Amino acid sequence: MGIEQIKVGFDNFSYIIYDLISKESAIVDPSINITKQIDFLKVKKLDLKYIINTHHHRDHTLKNDKIKEIYPDAKIIISEVFLRKLDINSKIYVYEAFELEIGSMRLKFLLTPGHTPDGLCIIVDDKAIITGDTLFIDNCGRADTPGGNIYDLFNSLQKIKKLSDDIIVYPGHDYGPKFFDKLGNQKKTNKTLLARNLDEFSKIP
Ligand SMILES: [Fe+2]
Fold it and tell me: Does the predicted TM-score (pTM) go above 0.85?
């Protein structure tokens, strides 16, 4: 199992999920700058099968088209509640617990609305979770921007909280003291996961 975390722009994280034996791979949230991601794919001689967007915000989707120009066979994977359903032939709309394979790796999708209605998280081989703007290290995404919903966000965080402590959390932005962390640690230090109910959650400054 390979996950390459690549920092782009000011604080965005993009990811390459890859299997070195089959050479199959996926890019998560190609945005702002894709130079490092393309270099990584080329150096490792990877075949890009999927472009996955954790949600529709431009700082997570901006370079989808550019990647498609370079890898025309790559399919875009987005939530079934994605707001702009265009060009359906090249997209796969995922639903709760949708699964797909990248070589020997198994990806499982969780729908995690709240920051946006179309938020999703990607669980890789039950060992890692890429959380987009749903969960950051020691914080969570905003629910007060257009389409945000604090009730949905709280429920999405509860869904993540049920996963194994050993899973590594890979967030959509570098907003915390670390680039990634074990979910078990986050359950102890992340105030948004420590909130026991919506009332406590909504009072977090
Ligand atoms: Fe966002």
Answer: yes
